[in-house]
Amino acid sequence: MAEGSKAQKVLVVGAGPVGALAALYAANRGDDVHVYELRADLRNPSTTPLNFTKSINLALSERGINSMRQSQCVGLLEEVLKETIPMHARMIHGRKKGGELFQESQEYDANGRYIQAVDRASLNKRLLDALEKLPNVTLHFNHKLTGADFNKSIAWFEQHGNATKTDHAQHPTHNDALWHDQKRATEISVAFDLLIGADGAHSATRYHLMKFARLDYQQEYIDTLWCEFHIAPRSSDSSFAIDPNHLHIWPGGSFMFIAIPSLDKSFTCTLFAPASHFNSISENPEQKLPKFFHKNFPGVCPELISMSDLQKQFRENPHLPLISIKCKPYNFKSSVVILGDAAHAMVPFYGQGMNAGLEDVRVLFDILDKHRIYGSGTHDIARNKAREAALDEYTSQRAPDAAAINDLALRNYEEMRSSVQSVLYKLRKWMEETVNVYVPSLGCRTQYTRVSFENQRYSEVEKAVQRQGRILLGVIGLSVVGMGGLTAFGIFKRDYWKIFRTWLNQVGK
Fold it and tell me: Which is more confidently placed, 482 or 335?
């Protein structure tokens, strides 16, 4: 904070990766930062993330990396990257018509760039550790946001004990009675200048924001559930069972199975399938599950996961839904703004949920800086007015970008589960990458490259790819017409000389 300016009091609701990074950005600008988290300390192994299993692996790409790079937190990015595994390509698995297993590597980027597998808990720990070192940050765990008045800038929290609370869609919380039968939790009121809601898809901040802002809200559960599985390291030498530098995909048309490497040499795997498939298998998993995997995901069971482990994991791990959320505005006046899944929860098929949330933080604070929120000698009234203008601009800029990546993520499911095997997909990818390598000045890049390895706005990516697609289709069309013309000319030329030679022979006679 510049000399002469009073520090803003910033409340961050949610201590996940997005909330923690937002707190770092605010604290490094001199704000008095208080982070409120519903759960116990997320660095405690006994704390299970809401609606997740314990071992969630994520794909970290340029947008998330760049956002941490610009956090003004020395050494943070280097510490995070030390605990990641490079994934240079997709590995597509399948079975040939003759029954032989195959795998095909498809590089993500023509210039060798790659995404990184990162453990969610490890990333969260690094961010919280960095926060805890700052003197102007206070962490409040076991605090539930119960109310807010965004006109008066006051929030209310219930302070709970350390009872562990999990919340899975398939397995209801077992200790709800303990949670609710405790003596009435102490409720506290907290005044603030700015409240940042980064409290996930089922955001309490967004719920209270709806009471003040005319908020358009769209929620969609797609007809797909997911279940986590685990590939253990090889028993012989504790090495990776399959190549660790790939994101492995078993495409199945209307479903798929993926595997992402972990630092302990295991793989975190996910089955995505329509709810009807889960329901059908659940009727008789002992018989149906092995047949389903053998038919659709060759080489997984028993080669990578034993039959007993497959059954156990399917039975014990929750079968969870996938939600897509769009809303706007993201703010109300100068007092509140929502980020990450609270603003735009998306399906995971582009690996951009966390990256987009971390990018939200960078974009928000870039705009706050642009409006000189942290300028020297700024008075409260002027700063509130500037902050309101900044939050309005953030909504105007970020809402269309979030809508674009939500839509792209949904479409990428079709690509991952089916299109990666199609000739047309491979042809377009080859054309785009070839032009990018040999004529880079034309600016032709694959959609995946633009999304995962650049910081171009998502809405601009969508428009650029659509324009590029029309051009490529035109080129392919002209090529087909040209080849057809040349073929026709070749047939005419061949027949012409055949007829001419026959005529000469007749004349000679």
Answer: 335
